[in-house]
Amino acid sequence: MSAVTPNAKHHEGLAPMMSRFVRVADLPWEKTSFPGVETKTLLLDKSTGLLTVLLKMAPGARLPDHEHVLIEQTFVLEGRLVDRDGECRAGDYVWRPAGSRHEAWCPEGGLMIAMFQVPNRFHQRDGTTTDMLGQDWMSTWGGVREEAAE
């Protein structure tokens, strides 16, 4: 099986078809390349790009210009997530089509679950693209599922 929960305890040695229970409180918050934005990785399948994260944004934190290579889904648990198209408040859900591009921010801060078919591609001013951790997008994710987005 290629799907994992990085940093989860008690998953080693489980049979392939067993459920993976995750104690989210035990997972560390991981810094991203964007100030005030942290994640806990709940599910990662590097072979397909599938990614589910708990995303925490401090008041005023922004996700700069990025593209949803494939469909992205977000459920807001606390606060609100805002972009030029509108806002998603606590208890609301938004999904974004493959190929859509925008900036997003949390004026008062926020906590949400975000699900990606493949991680977002962040467009840098110098023309390069990165993922949320600042890794080169093409070398990290370009060969994974980009064909499916076209």
Element layout with pairings:
Layout: E1 3-4, E2 30-31, E3 37-45, E4 50-57, E5 61-67, E6 72-83, E7 86-89, E8 93-96, E9 101-106, E10 110-116, E11 121-123, E12 129-130, H1 137-149
Antiparallel strand pairs: 1-3, 2-3, 3-4, 4-10, 5-9, 5-11, 6-7, 6-8, 6-10, 11-12
> How are helices and strands ordered from N to C?
EEEEEEEEEEEEH
SS element count, helices: 1
Mind telling me which CATH architecture this is?
Sandwich
Number of DSSP-assigned strands: 12
Number of domains: 1
Quaternary: single chain
Shape: globular
Distance between the termini: 27 Å
Helix-strand makeup class: mainly beta
CA-based gyration radius: 15 Å
Helix share bin: under 10%
Strand content: 35-45%
The CATH superfamily name is Jelly Rolls
CATH fold name:
Jelly Rolls
Outline the low-pLDDT stretches: 146-150
Keywords:
150 residues, mainly beta, Jelly Rolls, four-stranded antiparallel β-sheet, 12 strands, disordered C terminus
Would you kindly provide a written description of the structure presented here, covering whatever features stand out?
This protein has one helix at residues 137-149; strands spanning 3-4, 30-31, 37-45, 50-57, 61-67, 72-83, 86-89, 93-96, 101-106, 110-116, 121-123, 129-130. The chain has one helix and twelve strands; from the N terminus they run ββββββββββββα. It is globular and about 45 Å long. Strand 11 and strand 12 form a beta hairpin. The strands form two sheets. Strands 1, 2, 3, 4, 6, 7, 8 and 10 form an eight-stranded antiparallel β-sheet that branches. 9% of the residues lie in helices and 44% in strands. The chain has 150 residues and is mainly β. The protein has a single domain (3-9, 33-149), classed as Sandwich (Jelly Rolls), CATH 2.60.120.10. Residues 146-150 have low confidence and may be disordered.
